[in-house]
Amino acid sequence: MTTYCKAGLALAVLLAVSSNLLAQQDMGKGLDSIKVVAPGATLRQVSSQFTFTEGPAVNKKGDIYFTDQPNDKIWRYDTDGKLSLYMDKTGRSNGLYFDKKGNLISCADEKDELWSISPDKKITVLLANFQGQRMNGPNDLWIDPKGGIYFTDPYYQRDYWERKKPDIDGQKVYYLPKGKQEAVLVDGDLKQPNGIVGTPDGKFLYVADIRDSKTYKYQINADGTLSNRQLFIPQGSDGMTLDSQGNLYISGRGVTIYSPAGVKLGNIPIPSRWVGNVCFGGKDRKLLFITASESVYTLPMQVKGVE
Question: Is position 228 within any domain?
């Protein structure tokens, strides 16, 4: 009986290992079929010590900063592959983005504000409300070439809030012009906007309406307003980024990549329950960094990021 149990256990272990190797091989084959992924590249799990990771942003050096929002922390993954805690007590930061001066701009939804965190970690509140009303919960953002901030403001009930309903009717997209203290409503006709990113020339903006499973493309006008809204793809997203070829990367069930024409190039499967966001980093900007629930992953790419 003992011999049989040991043999059975050994067989189970062998089958599990074989199954895992086959899964990795299948993933590898799948990744090789996506033209923007580096040949032979494999997905690497950097760490799984978090609760829910979000908001990756890259600085000028290529270091990546991201949030673990339930634990109210910002982490850094540097170009040498070192992971370290950057900041504790972050105002429940979610989406992040670096401005041209190296300040880390944050969607801090503990009090539903936009923050600027300087390199020496001095905090400046850029936006505290909209026309005197508390925001729903700034979620994701993108900074245009002029220094203006586009951000989404969906409502996700937080357990650290005392309120149980939003002050503002509807879930919308706003623009905060550089140097201003009052935001401008740029699209109020969405169910639940979430991921957002713009082209580096400042001409177009992508916004995901995650509840409606749609992603829109807008033309950005000279005054920062939006026009010519068009359905780009019938898929929503939690977070988004662009590469140097204009391909759009959207998160959720893995990372799905679309060409500038909206043609699906492929899906990068991620072994976590949900992918919150994605960005490019590294010294050459060719490392795809993926925040996925309890984990963060990296994947070498053939293309560069533009953020």
Answer: yes
Verify that 15 and 43 share a domain, yes or no. no
249 token code pair = 């990367």
| C-alpha separations of 179 from 21, 60, 116, 145, 148 in Å | 54, 22, 12, 14, 8
Coil, strand, or helix at residue 69? helix
**Could you tell me if residue 305 is inside a domain?**
no
pTM: 0.90
Looking at the fold, whether 6 and 147 belong to one and the same domain comes out as no
- Number of structural domains the chain divides into: 2
Helix boundaries (H) for the chain: 2-32
Domain hosting residue 137, numbered range: 39-300
pLDDT tens for residues 167-221?
Answer: 999 999 999 999 999 999 999 999 999 999 999 999 999 999 999 999 999 999 9
The answer to whether 226 touches 234, Cβ cutoff 8 Å, is no
298 within 8 A of 290, measured Cβ to Cβ: yes
Tell me 121's DSSP state: -
